[in-house]
Specification:
This protein has about 475 residues and is of the alpha/beta class. The protein has helices at about 50, 65-75, 75-95, 100-110, 115-130, 135-145, 150-170, 170-185, 190-200, 215-235, 240-255, 260-270, 275-280, 285-300, 305-315, 325-340, 420-435, 450-455, and strands at about 115, 345-355, 355-375, 375-390, 395-400, 405-410, 435-445. A 7-stranded mixed beta sheet has the order 1-2-3-4-5-6-7, sandwiched between helices. Strand 3 (about 355-375) and strand 4 form a beta hairpin. About 20% of the residues are buried. This is Flagellar hook-length control protein FliK. It comes from Anaerotignum neopropionicum.
Length: about 475
């Protein structure tokens, strides 16, 4: 038996070993020493370089930071649409594609044909239809929110706007619910799928806006319990659960889209004198019907954009040829990016054919651009206009409007620079004809398109954002 108490002879080579900390930061054989002064990732590599990418944003890898990265890298719709409008759409009509799709494209090309006299009205309709909360009533509510010191009133106004948003979109929400249920039926076993499709048939896709009672009864008392029973019995943690999450979110919005809920929210703000003095004794239900009528007129006035979206959707499905799918996807992605909740600007698209001259234009408008001067904040209106004219080239126009005075900066193709005096005179004449005085007009050549963040730095100045990405 070994004597474990006996002191054994030490192993040679360790007689003079140091009893201090054997690890030193200067040891070239030691890698990835933790530095507590730096924020590190799980693999111990410093992420300080990531933080230097955008000094304006406090939280990295957040949803908002993701939006900024996509905005920086994604091409503008104007750049992509030029090739589609000037070349591909006409070729597609003559290439033997589906007859119905060809008629859709032809109808769109007819809708954008305008005379110079019609252009102003078309632009007003597009800007007016670019926001759901447009018109005298919503302008009044904006002024109340800006001037009110009552947090309770502000909260009730915001609740009214939320309910109007869902109320006016109730038909669209129903369609989303039907899409979710259709996708669910494809992911369920056949026996469950058939039962779900039978329940789905009971939903009324054409229910009047705000009339949600019958559909909610079916959704909450039959469809949701059925899906709950399925997940409880099968423990399906796959795609079905993701689709159910989307479905429940849409049902929640649909529940908020009830017309009576909107009327109740409107009655709540009518108790405040600042509202009542302006609107008088207006009937809530009549007022709700008027708002929905105005909303419907906006949608009808936006027919060209609706047809463009239909063309893009069909192009993504491959009806224009599989080789063109990526192009259609790129355009739709760029359009959705500009409608993001993180985009603080009004965005308008203008596909035009004026006297046979085809062009596509995009406008970004900030009606509340702020500039500090001597301790006072002065509000201005700033616009970025991008337009691509067939056989001429790509233009960037920046406009700053302040108290009836205009400053303009135009970036154009090099071949246009020789006509700069004529362009300045023409722009100045247009401004003066509309009652605006011109402070300055400059025309320059630029090889790289102007970025949105260059013109509107407020997009990157979200210093107090909260990272909600999981």
């Amino acid at each position: 038996m070994s004597n474990i108490i006996k002191v054994s002879t030490p192993v040679s080579g360790y007689e003079n070993s140091s009893r201090t900390n054997p690890i030193t930061t200067n040891d070239p054989n030691i890698n990835n020493i933790t530095n507590v002064s730096k924020v590190t990732r799980p693999d111990s590599k410093s992420s300080n370089t990531d933080y230097q990418q955008n000094n304006f944003v406090q939280y990295q890898n957040s949803n908002y930071e993701g939006f900024l990265k996509v905005l920086k890298d994604a091409p503008f719709t104007t750049e992509l649409m030029g090739d589609l409008m000037f070349v591909k759409l006409g070729n597609l009509v003559n290439s033997g594609i589906n007859e119905n799709f060809a008629q859709e494209i032809s109808r769109f090309l007819e809708l954008i044909k305008l005379s110079p006299e019609e252009l102003q009205g078309f632009l007003k309709n597009q800007v007016g239809g670019a926001t759901k909360f447009g018109g005298a009533f919503f302008d009044f509510l904006r002024n109340v929110l800006a001037e009110s010191n009552s947090g309770e009133l502000n909260s009730k106004i915001l609740d009214l706007l939320k309910k109007y948003n869902d109320f006016s979109a109730s038909n669209h929400i129903v369609k989303n619910i039907l899409i979710d249920l259709s996708n669910l039926s494809k992911s369920l076993p056949k026996s469950y799928s058939e039962q779900l499709l039978e329940l789905t048939k009971q939903l009324d896709e054409n229910a009047k806006p705000g009339d949600t009672t019958n559909n909610l009864e079916i959704l909450k008392k039959e469809i949701i319990p059925f899906l709950s029973k399925y997940t409880r019995y099968t423990n399906d943690f796959g795609r079905v659960r993701d689709l159910i999450s989307s479905l429940t979110q849409n049902i929640s919005r649909y529940e908020n889209a009830n017309k009576n809920g909107f009327i109740d929210a409107f009655d709540e703000i009518m108790h405040y004198n600042v509202i009542k003095d302006k609107l008088g004794n207006i009937d809530s239900e009549t007022f709700a019907d008027v708002l929905m009528q105005l909303h419907g007129e906006k949608l009808r006035g936006d027919e060209s954009n609706q047809r463009l979206i239909n063309i893009l959707e069909r192009g993504i499905r491959g009806e224009a040829g599989y080789e063109n799918i990526d192009g259609f996807k790129g355009i739709l992605t760029s359009m959705l990016l500009n409608e993001s909740v993180y985009m603080p600007l009004l965005h308008v698209m203008l596909p035009l054919d004026v006297n046979g001259n085809m062009m596509f234009s995009e406008l970004w408008i900030d009606p509340d651009d702020e500039e500090g001067k001597n301790g006072e904040v002065e509000k201005k209106t700033k616009l970025l206009i991008k337009f691509d004219i067939k056989d001429v080239g790509f233009f960037d126009l920046i406009i700053l409007h302040n108290k009836g005075k205009i400053d303009m900066q135009l970036f154009c193709p090099e071949k246009i620079l020789s006509a700069d005096k004529g362009i300045k005179a023409g722009l100045g004449e247009i401004m003066e004809r509309n009652g605006l005085a011109v402070n300055s007009i400059s025309i320059d050549k630029r090889n790289i398109p102007v970025s949105i963040s260059e013109v509107f730095p407020k997009i990157c100045e979200r210093k107090n954002t909260v990272n909600v990405k999981i």
